[in-house]
Automatic annotation (TrEMBL), chain A:
Pfam families: NifU_N (PF01592). This is Iron-sulfur cluster assembly scaffold protein IscU. Belongs to the NifU family. InterPro entries: ISCU, NIF_FeS_clus_asmbl_NifU_N. A scaffold on which IscS assembles Fe-S clusters. It is likely that Fe-S cluster coordination is flexible as the role of this complex is to build and then hand off Fe-S clusters. The lineage of its organism: Bacteria, Pseudomonadati, Acidobacteriota, Terriglobia, Terriglobales. It comes from Tunturiibacter gelidiferens. The gene is iscU.
TrEMBL record, chain B:
The lineage of its organism: Bacteria, Pseudomonadati, Acidobacteriota, Terriglobia, Terriglobales. Homodimer. Forms a heterotetramer with IscU, interacts with other sulfur acceptors. It catalyses: (sulfur carrier)-H + L-cysteine = (sulfur carrier)-SH + L-alanine. Belongs to the class-V pyridoxal-phosphate-dependent aminotransferase family. NifS/IscS subfamily. It is found in: Cytoplasm. Its cofactor is pyridoxal 5'-phosphate. Residues 23-387 form the Aminotransferase class V domain. This is Cysteine desulfurase IscS.
């Protein structure tokens, strides 16, 4: 299958590859997928406790080119966003941006899940209730 | 096995001598036609165009003569006689004709067929179809090295068994089954033995007498011949095998396969067999050296790599390696100027990795990390160096990106993690 230029670009020049200290309070880690499925994404965020803005994001991905591109793009998009803005990122946005073919939509879903899992982990660590966050958003 | 089709051209200025891109190293899928084969075929597209079944004029005679020569060439390569060669459109048809034709012909005697889980889909899908028609099929498992256990085969054969179909050499992992022993066992039990020998014929010595083979499928395009032509060897004595025809219309090919013969294709198949017979021994030695050289390079440069399939019973031109913690498709994407295949199936709707690799007991994760290198007649040492260096480079880069590799390096047991499977 032919990938879009954007997928190829993210594959060749992945953004924000790396590891944040998962024990730090301001860091949220999301690990989604499974080796058996051929895709594992780890997305990490570092959140400013004052502003709830994601100041840094890192990823590592085991998976196909689309999975790598989806997670790379996800780190770019969450950086500078508040937690609630990041939660609003949907997999269809990723599909559109990367022009993913139908068989690769799975990768975008995984990236969305990775963002949510990282935020979930951060909230758990910082005892931020789900409802409170939703209330802020409204 | 799948591949992605991204092509990024590289400046040829930086390439080592003897390397031009893209490099073809997927010779199990198909082989480029040998120019000598094409030369042999060309007259039969033009001047010598007769129908080999036209018995009453010179055009037909010339075509028939060419076909009979090809029959001899093919028979010679596998230790058969010319009369035992039936032409088909390729190995898929040969396998269909063998399995369906034998099942139908010997239905009175029994309805049981034995095959193995690592067969090509041309055999497996045909068996599934036969199951729907009331046949019973036993799919033998393979051991971790890809070989079947002869004791399993012995146990599987019962008084209703009419046919055993075991492939000679596997297309993914290159493992060569103990064909002569399997054939001997079948003959002792009075069971017909068919082998899909597509990957073996012309690559390693195949002899239907020594190997006790009754029916054998082969294909032109896997041995540097044309696509769209294959053959089925059908034993004529000890035992005489009968096959019920699956295509009707004129009774060509001893009534087993009707249809006007593809004369240029058949001439090409014959020429390909003759060349293979002459050059096989030296070529096998050369390919094995290249294969072992590449394997050693990978093992020296990278950790967590391993070979799939028993290397002592192996096609010389096959290397199936797992680069653990790297996903096969992303690896292919990084070497898109090289044609190889991946055991991963990330492009398929099911996301299921290779059933052959899984049959060896490999976890899905490792199967997703596997690459098949297929060396052929036209691959050079310079290409092997280029390919292995590039693969090492991309694997290293992708492992920097791999959360699994990082976790393993930190001493985390990946099997203890509760994965959120998708």
């Amino acid at each position: 299958m032919a990938y879009s230029d954007k997928v190829v670009d993210h594959y060749n020049h992945p953004r924000n590859v790396g590891t944040l200290d998962k024990t730090a309070a301001e860091v949220g880690t999301g690990l989604v997928g499974a080796p058996e499925c051929g895709d594992v994404m780890r997305l990490q965020i570092r959140v400013n406790p004052e502003t709830n803005v994601i100041e840094d994001a890192k990823f590592k991905t085991f998976g196909c080119g689309s999975a790598i591109a989806s997670s790379s793009l996800a780190t770019e998009w969450v950086k500078g966003k508040t937690i609630d803005e990041a939660l609003a990122i949907s997999n269809t946005d990723i599909v559109k941006e990367l022009a993913l073919p139908p068989v690769k939509i799975h990768c975008s879903v995984l990236a969305e899940d990775a963002i949510r899992a990282a935020i979930g982990d951060w909230k758990k660590k910082n005892k931020v209730a789900e409802t409170a966050a939703v209330a802020v958003a409204h | 096995m799948s591949n992605n089709g991204v092509v990024i051209s590289e400046s040829s200025a930086s390439l080592p001598a003897g390397v031009t891109l893209p490099i073809y190293m997927d010779n199990h899928a198909t082989t480029p036609m040998d120019p000598r084969v094409l030369d042999a075929m060309l007259p039969y597209f033009g001047k010598v165009f007769g129908n080999a079944a036209s018995r009453n004029h010179v055009f037909g005679w010339e075509a028939e003569q060419a076909v009979e020569k090809a029959r001899e060439q093919i028979a010679k390569l596998i230790g058969a006689t010319a009369k035992e060669i039936i032409f088909t459109s390729g190995a898929t048809e040969s396998n269909n004709l063998a399995l369906k034709g034998i099942a139908e012909m010997y239905r009175e005697r029994g309805n049981h067929i034995v095959t193995q889980v690592t067969e090509h889909k041309a055999v497996l899908d045909t068996c599934k179809k036969l199951e729907k028609q009331g046949y019973r099929v036993t799919y033998l498992p393979v051991q971790a090295d890809g070989l079947i256990d002869l004791e399993d085969l012995k146990r599987a054969i019962d008084d209703k068994t009419i046919l055993v179909s075991i492939m000679y050499a596997n297309n993914e992992i290159g493992v060569i089954q103990p064909i002569a022993e399997i054939g001997k066992l079948c003959h002792e039990k009075g069971v017909i033995f068919h082998t899909d020998a597509v990957q073996a014929v012309g690559k390693i010595p195949v002899d239907v007498q020594k190997d006790n083979i009754d029916v054998l499928s082969l294909s032109g395009h896997k041995i540097y011949g044309p696509k769209g032509v294959g053959a089925l060897y059908v034993r004529r004595r000890n035992p005489r095998v009968q096959i019920s025809e699956q295509i009707n219309g004129g009774g060509h090919e001893r009534g087993m396969r009707s249809g006007t013969l593809n004369v240029p294709g058949i001439v090409g198949l014959g020429a390909a067999c003759e060349i293979a017979g002459q050059e096989m021994e030296a070529e096998a030695k050369r390919e094995k050296e290249l294969r072992d050289y590449m394997k050693a390079k990978f093992e020296k440069a990278l950790d967590y790599v391993h070979v799939n399939g028993n290397m002592d019973h192996h096609l010389p031109g096959n290397l199936n390696m797992s680069f653990v913690y790297v996903e096969g498709e992303s690896l292919l994407m990084g070497i898109n100027d090289i044609a190889v295949s991946s055991g991963s199936a990330c492009t398929s709707a099911t996301l299921e990795p290779s059933y052959v690799l899984k049959a060896l007991g490999l976890g899905d994760d490792v199967a997703h990390s596997s690459i098949r290198f297929g060396f052929g007649r036209f691959n050079t040492k310079a290409e092997v160096d280029y390919v292995s260096d590039k693969v090492i480079n991309v694997v290293s880069k992708l492992r920097e990106l791999s959360p699994l590799y990082e976790m393993v390096k930190e001493g985390i047991d990946l099997t203890k993690i509760e994965w959120a499977a998708h």
